[in-house]
Amino acid sequence: MRVVAGVVLVAAALGGCSSIADGGLQDALDSGDVTRIANGIRELNTSGAGDSEVKRRAVDVLSVRYMRKFADSPDQTLVNLENFDANCVRLISQKCSDSAREEISRLEAARHKRAAELRSEIAKQAEAARQEMIAEFRSGERKVTSLNEALIAYEPAPGDGLAIRPPISGGDGKYYVLQAYITAKQGSSYIFWWADSPLVSRGTYGMPAMGAIFENPAYVDSGVGFNQHVKVVGRYVGNQTIGLADGSGAIVPVFEDAYIFPWSRQ
Q1: Phi/psi at 189 (nearest 5 deg)?
Q2: What are the tens digits of pLDDT across the range 171-201?
Q3: Within 13 A of 42's CA, how many CA atoms are on the CB side?
Q4: Is 144 domain-assigned?
Q5: Nearest Cα residue to 252 out of 188, 195, 206
Q6: CATH code at 232?
């Protein structure tokens, strides 16, 4: 019976302490002093006292205050539930009210939505500007004078494979980008042939021979010279046989509207 009585006495004592703390917290609420209210909540949490109506009201009051201040942060990237929870735990040793946390989550979601909409709008504007630029290049209103502009204007597919094995079906009218060496010039056409020595059929060091003809190029950079590594953007229009010095012939792709630039200026 003594043990039971002792437990009853301890419980009564704890209840009395809780009531006293609640009374102090009520006084803090009545005063409107935020620091006192926060201290009162922390004391109750530290003592292990359970929830009470006074404590719930105090948490609600501070939760609204913290939420509004947090929402007005100059750095909106910090306004998220994780940071808000950490802030509340630091100030009152517990998370803020569910309603305040829900509002912070709503604000965070709205911020992410606005950011996504802004990114989408910027992307749309950039794409519109790019399409306008492409139209100007293709109409001739704006001249292509760099490899980057040629890549933007014609969006070429990789074409190195065409120089090794041109398809039997011939040109498809599409634009391609490929690396080459200008090894000869016949009239207005530039010849690319890569083998053991100029215009023979064997490939360099066991590699397959490569070649192409660039008919009437649309643009040849002033820095382009013979036997120089270049990059070319051109429209594949067909195949043609070129005669080689050893008496054989080779079928190579033919490109029109080509833009030829030194490799170093890509």
Answers
A1: -100, 145
A2: 999 999 999 988 889 899 999 987 644 444 4
A3: 12
A4: no
A5: 195
A6: 2.40.50
Chain position carrying tokens 């709503």: 106
Three-state secondary structure string covering the chain: CHHHHHHHHHHHHHHHHHHHHHHHHHHHHHHCCHHHHHHHHHHHHHHCCCCCHHHHHHHHHHHHHHHHHHHCCCCHHHCCHHHHHHHHHHHHCCCCCHHHHHHHHHHHHHHHHHHHHHHHHHHHHHHHHHHHHHHHHHHCCCCCCCHHHHHHHHCCEECHHHHHCCCCCCCCCCEEEEEEECCEEECCEEEEEECCCCCCCCCHHHCCCEEEEECCCCEECCCCCCCCEEEEEEEEEEEEEEECCCCCEEEEEEEEEEEEEEHHHC
Better-predicted residue by pLDDT, 256 or 244: 256
Domain coverage including residue 227: 156-265
111, 144, 172 — which closes off a domain?
A: 111
Distance CA 95, CA 115 (A): 27
Tell the burial category of 233 from Cβ atoms under 10 Å away from its Cβ (0-12, 13-18, 19+).
buried
pLDDT band at 266, cuts 50/70/90? Answer: low
Residue 27 lies in a domain: yes
pLDDT tens by residue, 4-14: 444 333 333 34
Domain count, the chain: 2
Residues 160 and 261 in one domain: yes
What's the pLDDT at 19?
56
Model pTM score: 0.59
